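Researcher: Quick sanity check before group meeting.
Model: Go ahead. Protein one:
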Amino acid sequence: MARLGKVPAGNQEAAVVDSLIKKLRPFDTKRQPFDRPFVSERASTLGARPLSRMRPIGGPMRPGAVWGCVALGLILGIALPQWPYARACGGWLLLYLTAVGTVVVAGAWGARVSWRSRIGLAHIVAMGTMIWGLALTAQEVLPRVGYAKTRLAWRCHDGQAAAPSSTSLFALTRHLDVGTTDLVR
């Protein structure tokens, strides 16, 4: 950077430019501009109006409200294994997966609220609810995408809707029924 020294006497415009440059850079001209730490030219911010017109986000929720949010997801997660309709395929499967997705979203919502409110036990319960919802999703989705040994369909074909659901409980009872018929023979 060029030194800002004395200006020749006949060059008035250069003198004006040099004085304006000195006003823009009030630090010592012998030092480089990066040697000086940044100092705000704004006066103290105490009592000053904020730079943004947006309102601050509300603080943490009350503990009862946090536990209410977490309990909603937990109750739905507990109730889903007792789903009263067949979920082998079709519309009932879609409704079941929507309910399971609601458990995952409720768990994430409860985890966020409990994290912001600094309630550790509620956060752990909400994370468990979210993981439970993901496990319920995996139980229905993985056999339909070809990951499990048995292959299930998304849509119902030729009276498949009347068949009972292919959950692990149904497979266990079918296995027990086959075993008891062998004992009777």
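Researcher: Fine. The other one?
Model: Protein two, sequence then structure:
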Amino acid sequence: MFKVGDKVVYPMHGAGVIEAIETKEILGKVKQYYVLRMPIGDMKVMIPVSTVGDAGLRQVIDNETVQQVLDVLRKKRVASTANWNRRYRAHLEKIKTGDVFAIAEVVRNLTCRDKEKGLSTCERKMLDTARQILVSELALAKDIDHDGAMNLLINTVE
């Protein structure tokens, strides 16, 4: 169980801080909820405590793992011969896992592809989403602001 003040990652939304644990009645059912403050976009998210495992909520990575993520971003991408639709689905599955290394791969692959051949509109939106998720976690993990985390990411990807 998480506690107030914990830095956590909510897949497909990014990293945030648990601001409160509240009991609410919604649609006639009383449940406990984690209230997350997402620093990027200044959004609040409520996640039922009972569904945390299914939601994929996890702790923000530590400094050692940050270095491993940066190593993933530095690697050369593996060229994909799949059409954009297959690439898109494969990348979406990686993002949905919430795994920081998988998201870093998506950011690396799409960034490199954008430099080489350009991206479709869908892939460009996906790159922006994956980048925001990764930046939010890097910012909380390294205790830096959004711009610092974005610069770290941009300067790391080849």
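Researcher: One line on it for the slide.
Model: The mean pLDDT is 91.
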